[in-house]
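[job 4471] stage=fold_predict status=RUNNING
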Amino acid sequence: MIYDRFQNEAIEHIKAGHSVIVSAPTGAGKTAIAEHVLESCIEAKEGVIYTAPIKALSNQKFRDFAGRYGDNIGILTGDVSLNVDAPVLIMTTEIFRNKVLDAPDSLKKYSWIIFDEVHYIDNPERGTVWEESLIFLPPHMNILCLSATIPNIKQFAAWIESIHKKPVKVVIEDTRPVPLHFFFQCHDRIVDNLNSLKGARSYKQNRTHSLIKYCESKDGLPVIYFVFGRKRAEYLASELYGCHFLDKTESAEILALYENLCRRFDLAHEKSALDMIPLIERGVGFHHAGMLPTLKEVIERLFTSRLLKVIFTTETFALGINMPSRSVIFDELMKFYGSYTRALKTRDFYQMAGRAGRRGIDTEGFVYSRINLRRIRLEEVRRVIYGQPENVNSQFNASYATMLNLYERYKDELFNIYPLSLHYFQTKAREQRQALRVMEEKLKLLKELGHISEGKLTPKGQFAKAVYGYELLLAELYDDGVFENLDEMGLAILAVATVFEPRKGQVVVGLSKNSQYMKSVSTGIHESIVRKEAKHGIRPYCKAPHFNLAKAMEGWMHGMKFERILDLTDTDEGEVIRYFRMAIQILREINDAPISPILAGRIRTAIRMINRDIIDAEKQLREG
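[job 4471] inference complete, writing structure tokens
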């Protein structure tokens, strides 16, 4: 294989036995470096772990690598456990972090860890997982970090060097192999120079149809059209019912492929799959987290066949999944960032824009941004597209489970861990004192709640350290004997209520008496915990339980078909599957805690009852 300059540089460092961090644009070819590590480790009969930020990306990497390396590839996520003794084990970063803290001896056979999309350390909700994984990384493991372009990559490498006392080589590539050409649709005009929009007075509405047709006329298909809402993706796709992007032969070919894939993934009679046929035969599709996971995979395969010419999708389609196109369109350059709407970060823009331009096929990629000057100023547009990508900054926020694991190992000296964090490395004294104070208050609260007594973890603390993210609520329920009194149905309902996050406007309806009882008990416990967290000045508060899917879970546990339980909830079908799978994951974590054999048996039965048919993530991978 002929490598680019930066690929060669990284591989030479790897051959010399060094850890490496690579910063390069999306689509530049970072995966080839990871593949060199995999192949070298397989040949040398050494173990390597490949982590990805989301389960969908873990699953895709498993399919891709298993296709190349066969039985040398395994996968371990909260949903899936396949061939876990293979020399190459793919997992989510959360699973790796849990192993590092709970079972470090299980990592002895692995000589390398690959962190794909390591800039995720900047994610406000989950970034601390990457930071903890790197802080507690076993000393015998080398690191390969792959990242989109970030300006402070050398600072990031210096931090890792400072805590592990060994060199980390930095490889930077700023140039894309396929350059990007930027266009703007404003007042339904398409221009390639922002200056031509200065002083614009008319406010003619941008039309999706005219922009897609412009792309087609300029030989700009296939196109990925990024939107920031699921319903918006479906609505915009439906607007193209009057368009045909395929000739008769291509239309017949894509329909045959779609029908074959739908049969293969048991989708032949699914309403959502049938409803998409009129779009598919025109070369149009949509893809978002609210869809059935199997239907999403079918759409991905249609796109890689190059028969699907226009796909409307949310931003997760850009995260590591190898789906390049000739053009990319942004529905808008404003996005909701957790608690407020703001212009896109430059780094997020290029994560998506980088899907334009297929290496080895296109000489350039085309990126179209729809501009509404009533919603965004030209200066902001210029910053998003032509500005410097944002630095990666620490989001360190040690979970209660992490605190318990550290206390078990280091007792009150656990606070000596904080100076090893990226947060400490990047911040000034005032912020450092605040972060340390929060850790101290968390430890005080854990002692106050009875997780720690006389210098060691109590049975309650041993239980809590196994259930990352939901420690306090579940530990109180366990300590109060609630779990021991629940049957399989109750365990399943409580698990899905623990993980569920309602979308705006969702309501809880039709709870059974048992569900009402669990809602009352768990809500009361949560409110008590939050009062204590507020007293200690700990933010964010622990997550509240939500029983929106209780009725759907009851139906599923009673053996209902999936399409019938959808009538029992206002949650999208893909989200129902995701939360049921998350419920299985939390039940597995509880089962790993020190619980009674009777409760463990009920939990295993509950898991089997939930994990059937379309919920079974392993089944999707096996059939794929």
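[job 4471] summary: The two ends are 28 Å apart (CA to CA).
[job 4471] exit 0
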